Amino acid sequence: MKRFSIFLITFLISTSVFAQTTQVRIGLLNGPTCVPAAYLMENKKTLSTDAAEAELTYEKFADPQALLPKMIKKEIDLGFMPANVAAKVYNAGNKSIICCAVVGLGNLALITTDENIRRFTDLKGKTVNVAGQGATPEYMFRYLLKENKMTWSGEKADVTMDFSIPTAQLAAQLISGKIQYAVVPEPFATIAKTKSDKVITALDFQKEYLELTGEKEIYPLSVMVVRADFAKENQELMKAFLAEYDEAVNWTISNAAAAGSLCEKHQLGLAAPVVTKAIPLSNYTYVPADSAKKSIEKLLKLFLESDKTSIGGKLPDKGFYYKKD
User: Fold this and answer.
1) d(CA 241, CA 37)
2) Interatomic CA distance for residues 248 and 285, integer angstroms
3) Above 50 in pLDDT, residue 17?
4) Which tens digit of pLDDT belongs to each residue from 146-180?
5) Domain locations in the chain?
6) pTM of the model
7) Would you tell me which of 29, 111, 134, 260 could form a disulfide with 33, CB atoms 3.0–4.6 Å apart?
8) Highest mean predicted confidence (pLDDT) among 6-10, 37-41, 61-65
9) What is the DSSP letter of 218?
10) What angle do CA 110, 252, 183 make, to 5 degrees?
C-alpha cells in the first residue's frame, strides 16, 4: 500500500508538471513590422508540445523603445525590432536578449513630388526627412550617400537629414507640400502614393544596395528576438512558435487581401487596403537566425562603419544567434 501511495503521488506530480499551462508573451510593434502576426492572433491561441500547452498572449507597442523595458523585466518573452537595436541591446547588456529570426528584408525608398530626382547626387543641397533616427533608414541612407560621394554632416554637407517628423506623419506632410523629400519604409511609401498621384518613388534603396555591393539578397530590416533564458528553458515551445510564425509569413504573402483585413481587425495600426497593397513590396520573410548570420553581420558592419554606437561598438558574438538544438 505504501509503495502504491508513493507511485500515485509521483504520478500526480509528474502529470501536473506536463499538464500545466504556460504562457508565451509576445510583444508586437504597431505598424508594418508585425503584419504577419495578425494571422496568429486570429488563428493561434495556444501552442501544444509533448511537454506543455502554452497560451499565446499579445501586447502591442508603439516602438522598440517601449517594448525593450518589458523584455528586460521579463514581462515579454518574444518581440520584434530592427537588427541594429537588437545587437546594441545584446552588446550593452548581459546578453539577455538574442536574435531568433529575420522577419523582414529592406523595403526603403525616397519618395518625393520632385520628378528631377533620379539618382542620389540629385539630392545635393536638399533637406531629406528620414523615418527613424538611429535605425536602418538613417544608416542605410548614410551608406548610400557615402558610396555616391555625398556628405550628410558638417557645414558644407551635401544633404541635410531631418528627423523631426514622426514616420506616420511623413506621407501627409509630403502631400501637403510642407516637406519635399522623405526616406520611408513600406507601407508608408504606398500610403503616400495612394493618396496623391504626384508622389513618386524616386530612389529604390534595395536596388541601389544590390548594385553597389554585388549582393544577391536584400539586407535584413527587422528581426524577431527572444529572452535568452526563456529560449533555453522552453526549447520545444520555441520550435513550435517559430514554425507557426514561418507559416504565418508564408500565408500573409500569399493572401494579401485577407492579411490586410486581419491587420485592421486586430488593430495593428494600419488600414486593410494599405496593408493589402503594400504586402507585395514589404519583403516579409522568415530566415532562422543561424542561417541569417552572414547577412545580418554585413548589415551591422555598415552600421559600425557609420556610427559605432549604433550597434554597441562591435559585432555581436555567435551567442546572439539563436540555434535550435
Assistant:
1) 11
2) 10
3) no
4) 999 999 988 889 999 999 999 989 999 999 999 99
5) 20-105+220-301, 108-213
6) 0.88
7) 29
8) 37-41
9) P
10) 10
Domains 20-105+220-301 and 108-213 belong to one CATH topology: yes
Please tell me the distance from the alpha carbon of residue 188 to that of residue 172, in angstroms, as a whole number.
Answer: 10
pLDDT of residue 20: 52
> What is the Cα 304 distance to its own chain's centre?
19
What's the angle, vertex CA 38, arms to CA 35 and CA 40, rounded to 5? 125
Cell numbers standing for residue 45? 491561441
Dist. CA 263–CA 295, nearest whole Å: 29
What residue spans of 49-94 are helical by DSSP H?
A: 64-72, 83-92
The CATH number of 20-105+220-301 is: 3.40.190.10
Cell of 190: 504606398
Name the residue with cell 523595403. 107
CATH 3.40.190.10 fits 108-213, yes or no: yes
Query: Omega into 316 within 30° of 0, i.e. cis?
Result: no
Asked if residue 113 lies in contact with residue 180, where contact means CB atoms within 8 angstroms, the answer is: yes
Assigned C-alpha cell, 284 = 516579409
